[in-house]
Specification:
Structural class: alpha+beta
Strand order of the largest sheet: 1-2-3-5-4
Number of helices: 3
CATH class: Alpha Beta
Number of domains: 1
Shape: globular
CATH topology: Heat Shock Protein 90
CATH superfamily: Histidine kinase-like ATPase, C-terminal domain
Oligomer: single chain
Number of strands: 5
Strand content: 25-35%
Largest sheet: 5 strands, antiparallel
Helix content: 25-40%
Distance between the termini: 17 Å
CATH architecture: 2-Layer Sandwich
Radius of gyration: 15 Å
Length: 135
């Protein structure tokens, strides 16, 4: 497992993405899966940056792990901010016209739909969100 610790600010999204991309290069990740993972990193790290530390900032850890037998890449995001389980958020009604939908939730919905697995836990005072993608 590899990890990087960054300040949870929007400006560090490219660093988090580059860290994971470097690992995906090593395992020959197909472009479609890479694009889906990049979008997920943007959404999830961005949510941490915007909402985890109201009125301030803190750290976020991004971990990468690859299980060769199952060809599964796992990216885990950890922060010690406000407890928040994005999986409990109700999915937006995408059948409604955009102007009739409630604001928020579309990014997490997209991540849930493009990843093979997504799980959340609150562990030792930290939010721990893991996404997995078979590549």
């Amino acid at each position: 497992m590899k990890e990087i610790k960054l300040e949870a600010v929007v400006g560090n999204i490219p660093q988090a993405t580059a860290f994971v991309s470097e690992e995906l290069d090593k395992i020959g990740c197909p472009m479609k899966a890479r694009a889906q993972i990049d979008i997920a990193i943007d959404e999830l790290f961005g949510n941490i940056a915007h909402y985890a530390y109201p009125g301030g900032t803190g750290d976020a850890v991004v971990q990468f792990e690859f299980d060769a037998p199952s060809r599964t890449a796992a990216v885990t995001f950890m922060d010690s901010g406000v407890p928040y389980d994005p999986l409990k958020k109700e999915d937006p009604d995408v059948t409604l016209p955009a102007e009739q939908r409630k604001i928020g939730g579309l990014g997490i919905f997209l991540v849930k739909k493009t990843m093979d697995e997504m799980r959340y836990e609150r562990r030792d005072g930290r939010n721990v969100l893991t996404i997995k993608k078979r590549i």
